[in-house]
Design a protein that fits this description.
Blueprint (H helix, E strand, L loop, with lengths): L1 H7 L3 E4 L17 E3 L1 H4 L4 E3 L1 E4 L2
Antiparallel strand pairs: 1-4, 2-3
InterPro entries: MeTrfase_RsmB-F_NOP2_dom, SAM-dependent_MTases_sf
Keywords: Methyltransferase, RNA-binding, S-adenosyl-L-methionine, Transferase
Protein name: SAM-dependent MTase RsmB/NOP-type domain-containing protein
Length: 54
């Protein structure tokens, strides 16, 4: 879904979201984040941070 959005809106970029959660371990290689109940004590959540460049 994110890849499709980036293709549809070329003035949009995917930004590294990991710095927004500095105290959360094991966020992966980024730039998006997948949170898991067994690792993070949360519901399973996905976070992609998008920014318009124009």
């Amino acid at each position: 879904m994110v890849a499709d959005l980036l293709k549809q809106f070329p003035d949009t970029e995917l930004v590294d979201a990991r710095p927004l959660l500095p105290d959360v371990p094991d966020l992966g290689e980024g730039p998006d984040i997948q949170l898991w109940p067994h690792l993070h004590g949360t519901d399973a959540m996905y976070l992609a941070l998008l920014r318009r460049t124009a």
